[in-house]
Specification:
With about 700 residues, the protein is α/β, with parallel strands linked by helices. Helix content is about 45%, strand content about 10%. It has 24 helices and 18 strands. Helix 18 (about 510-515) packs parallel to helix 22 (about 605-640) and helix 20 packs parallel to helix 22 (about 605-640). The radius of gyration is 27 Å and the shape is globular.
């Protein structure tokens, strides 16, 4: 009987992929926080796989050694070397060592036993891999969509999870953005009247920031606070009768350059850097809070106040110097060669005053970087070559790829990111990327409507694929799709086999809409909602709007242009994406996406149900767009030639049918979701800016009425 039990245990062990009786000894320097973090994450993964992690350096089965080798490896690089009973993980620095340890953790989670680990070596393609995170206090725009995250973002457990996600995906910069960070971080020594906090609350805020920066440093992440100028606390403004609107919730306001404001902000910068030793740097903007000032005046103010305060802090510090996005004296967007020359000269005059290069973010295709990988515009228009020619010596460009286009639906197009890097990072003056949103905070999950348990707690965990794709591909664009596919299989077993491909096909719908429909600042386009700014109101993109709107991507052809030229006998080149061709692409890819997920059994697994549902929603949105394009072509043809009206009506009815499929899927599983918006009367009788696909069905149906009417 004992033999039978022993045999069953042995067979169970062999088939479980665990290592119940394998003793593992971790050898590492216990006095280095980053190495301790790497060892802790590795210990957690080993224990989960039933390895026995022992403190004894004798009588072990496998030794895992963690060490730094800056001679053989460059910064952030790592190697894994298995030799008999020893697995050595080297990092080119402490950050690289963390990546090496987490690479082994990933293998363990994917079911690879220690005895089967293969040699591995990797290094970063880009130096700067950052996330832009807007804080919900003193936000850039006051909004219920942002305010709702207040308690979640104050929770250090949230940050522990978010920072773990970042380092797991090999991001290396977390930047925290709000109008006035200093009010929450210090009680100014020379201006105590500026602080709104009683002693206890001030201590709580300071504990929060100290712990946040400590956890980031432990994970090898650089930290920055980034703000707009010129903003102070309301208490300071009232005490000194200055900066009368330069405080939350105002943001499009004139700059107050009085001497007391200068001294106050300079002192705040200096004191924050002196009190928060784990804070790496500060980011500056020539933006809101500086209306009424010329570009040169804005730069001089930044130099005299923010830069000077940083240099007076008396310790190494890093600088993010954003490219100006106004060329006049208002807060309106605009670009000019003169502004570019002023900004470049100011950065070059700083020489090597800061640690490492000055990072210079530029908004890629304004607020809608998830569009075409070709640089069409920046904030305000087309960028000149002033920042690039001749090659800069002390600063590097950081492309800011904003996401204002999908908040609820999961997204994942790995080849878009690979192509983006390939096309825009060939020059040495490009340092990397920022990703993140202005009008969305990935904290509170305000989307999930079902009561069944899911495998996420916070919003960013729903979008795990988005972060994994961007982070890992910024580190190494050659990272193969099998790495991302393995994560689906780890979560869902064989049911996840088709999900990566399905997401690539279906969420391409978003990229194609953003290429087709030209956009500028945040609310001029919201792809997952098919909304766009029309006049001073955000509305569903009607068939009329689709016909008339120019394109973002140069190779795309608008409906109006296509119909007018086609009726004149003009033939478009094969490399142009005409509306009829785009409709066919959308039809083909999204039908294939639906086929890939149609037989996935999601019963009993709410997390998998959401993954599959989002593929279907993107796919039906894509089919909706395909029929809408066909209807738009037919309708414009009718307006110019008096034929194809019935065809237009039928296509737009089919488009409405696909929208109803979107509603059918999303109504039971998605809540009505608040959106940030400049115009707070977002929809009629909808004062909280709530969005759901069901809420705008009447606007979608109006397309059929437009076709029936014929004329605009």
């Amino acid at each position: 009987m004992k033999k039978i039990i022993l045999l069953l245990i042995t067979v169970s062990y062999l088939f479980s992929g665990t290592a119940f009786s394998t003793n593992v000894f971790l050898q590492y320097k216990k006095d280095v926080p980053q190495i301790k973090y790497a060892a802790r994450k590795l210990t957690e993964a080993l224990t989960e796989k039933n390895y026995n992690v022992t403190d004894a350096n004798t009588n072990y089965d496998i030794l895992i050694s963690l060490d730094v080798d800056s001679i053989q490896l460059g910064a952030e690089a790592f190697s894994i070397i298995p030799e008999d009973k020893v697995i050595t993980i080297y990092g080119g620095d402490k950050r690289g060592l963390i990546y090496g340890a987490l690479a082994l953790v990933e293998h363990l989670k994917n079911g690879i036993a220690l005895k089967d680990v293969k040699p591995e070596r990797d290094k970063p393609r880009l130096e700067f891999r950052g996330i832009k995170f807007n804080l919900p206090w003193h936000t850039y725009r006051p909004s219920s969509a942002l305010d709702q995250h207040y308690e979640t973002v104050r929770n250090l457990k949230f940050w522990e999870a978010f920072l773990d996600m970042m380092v797991e995906n090999r991001f290396n910069v977390i930047s925290l953005w709000n109008l006035d960070p200093y009010t929450f971080m210090i009680k100014p020594k020379n201006f105590p009247e500026a602080s709104p906090w009683p002693v206890k609350e001030m201590a709580e805020w300071q504990h929060f920031y100290h712990e946040l920066f400590r956890m980031a440093k432990e994970r090898g992440l650089d930290t920055y606070i980034v703000h707009w100028n010129i903003f102070v606390s309301k208490q300071f403004a009232e005490a000194h009768n200055v900066a009368k609107q330069n405080f939350y919730p105002h943001y499009f306001v004139k700059g107050d350059t009085s001497e007391i404001v200068r001294r106050y902000m300079r002192d705040c910068v200096k004191q924050v850097l002196q009190e928060y030793s784990n804070l790496d740097g500060i980011g500056v903007s020539h933006g809101e809070g500086m209306a009424g000032m010329t570009p040169l005046q804005r730069q001089e103010w930044v130099d005299d106040v923010i830069i000077k305060g940083m240099l007076e802090a008396g310790r190494p510090v890093k600088l993010i110097h954003r490219v100006p996005f106004s060329s006049g004296t208002s807060s309106d967007p605009g670009v000019s060669k003169n502004v570019e020359e002023v900004t470049r000269a100011a950065m070059e005059n700083l020489g090597n005053s800061f640690e490492g290069p000055i990072w210079t973010p530029i908004k890629f295709n304004w607020s809608h970087g998830h569009s075409t990988p070709e640089l069409v515009k920046v904030h305000g228009g087309k960028l000149g070559d002033t920042y690039f020619k001749p090659d800069p010596k002390n600063y590097k460009i950081v492309w800011t790829v904003r996401n204002e286009d999908f908040f609820a639906l999961r997204w994942g197009v790995p080849d878009f990111i690979r192509k983006h890097i390939a096309e825009n990072c060939q020059e040495d003056y490009v340092g990397g990327y920022f990703i993140g949103s202005e009008t969305y905070i990935p904290a509170l999950d305000y989307f999930t409507a079902v009561k069944e348990p899911v495998d996420w707690k916070w919003a960013f965990q729903r979008q795990w694929l988005f972060y994994k794709l961007w982070g890992r591909l910024l580190y190494d664009p050659k990272t193969p799709d099998k790495v991302f596919q393995a994560e689906f299989n780890r979560r869902y077993g064989s049911k996840g086999d088709n999900l990566l491909k399905a997401y690539e096909l279906a969420s391409n719908t978003q990229l194609r809409l953003a290429c087709l429909y030209d956009s500028k600042w945040d609310f001029t386009l919201y792809c997952e909602g098919f909304l766009a700014l029309q006049g001073d109101t955000t509305k569903y993109i009607s068939v009329n709007q689709l016909i008339d709107q120019p394109t973002m991507a140069p190779e795309y052809v608008s409906v109006k242009n296509y119909v007018e030229k086609t009726l004149k006998g003009v033939t478009f080149a094969n490399d142009r994406v005409t509306p009829d061709k785009l409709a066919a692409m959308l039809e083909k890819d999204n039908r294939e996406a639906l086929r890939l997920v149609e037989n996935i059994d999601v019963s009993g697994n709410a997390s998998l149900m959401y993954e599959v549902a989002d593929v279907k929603v993107w796919a039906y949105l894509g089919l909706h767009l395909a029929e809408k394009l066909r209807g738009a072509i037919a309708l414009e043809t009718y307006r110019l030639q008096g034929r194809l009206q019935d065809e237009a009506i039928q296509h737009l009815k089919k488009a409405l049918g696909y929208w109803d499929k979107v509603i059918e899927i999303t109504r039971p599983i998605y809540k009505d979701m608040p959106l940030t918006h400049y115009n707070h009367n977002f929809f009629t009788a909808n004062k909280n800016n709530l969005f759901h696909w069901a809420l705008i069905r009447d606007e979608v149906a109006r397309d059929v009425d437009i076709a029936l009417a014929g004329k605009k």
